[in-house]
Amino acid sequence: VQLVESGGGMVQPGGSLRLSCAASGFTFADYYMTWVRQAPGEDPAWVSRISFDSLPFYANTVKGRFTISRDNAKNTVYLQMTALRPEDTAVYYCKLTTSTYDSWGQGTQVTVSS
Questions:
Q1: Distance in angstroms (rounded) separating the CA atoms of residues 103 and 114
Q2: Residue 78: pLDDT band by 50, 70, 90 thresholds?
Q3: CA separation (Å) from 14 to 20, 51, 73, 106, 112?
């Protein structure tokens, strides 16, 4: 399994970013995919999840601002982030959960600062 995130960066408050996670090594279309973030000094926090048939779920902290989507033909899951706030600053990870193991990408840094 390989999960490779991209699209992070530095943005001003109110700005937008689109994260991507390219997946390989498993049957992508069969699994839910999750975005998790970890801010400095904090535990990882669930951000959003998408079912294999694109039903989205969001943490209350990002609902209405973030949109998760997937392209099963490209084995890629996306996280469109808008109205970004300083408290969204974190490393964002793409995560696969199966019945027997979890797999994480290397993460991509998102920094929201003026």
A1: 33
A2: very high
A3: 20, 28, 32, 26, 9
